[in-house]
Amino acid sequence: MLNKIFDTGELPNVKVYEVAHKVVSDYMDKHTCKIDVVAAELGTTTGVLYRQLNPKDTQMTLSVDRIMSICNLTKDYRILELMSNEFDLALIPKHQDKATTSDINLLVDMASIENNDVFRVVKKAIADGVITPQEKEAILKEIDEAESANAELKDLVLHTAIKNKE
Length: 166
Known about the structure:
This protein is mostly helical and 166 residues long. The chain has seven helices and no strands.
């Protein structure tokens, strides 16, 4: 945790700093580099970047400019997503990758399989006229998986354009 001196509520936007740490760390892992390389790519020094990523350093805070630079470098927008969630807003890209009909076909197959699993587990559970606590848990687990598959399909259909056949 970033908080060794203050209570979490006393730190300014501690979640933003935690996500920024994770984004930079994931970038370093993906590119097998150290913080000095990231700092150079951001056009700053290691010391300045360390200070900007430290929520307790009130003299050199994490600025919107630095957040934008980190997002542009890493192509990881979790910091912006967190900020938009804090304001109960949705972050939606202007341009999205186009899905093919085979992408949708794969997701509809996956959704169908998950929905069939719900059907199978429920039918098995009610066969004896009683639903046990274990059966209830199994049903709820399958429903969650089916809802997730259906949500992924819905998101693909709602938020992407369909690529024309080539």
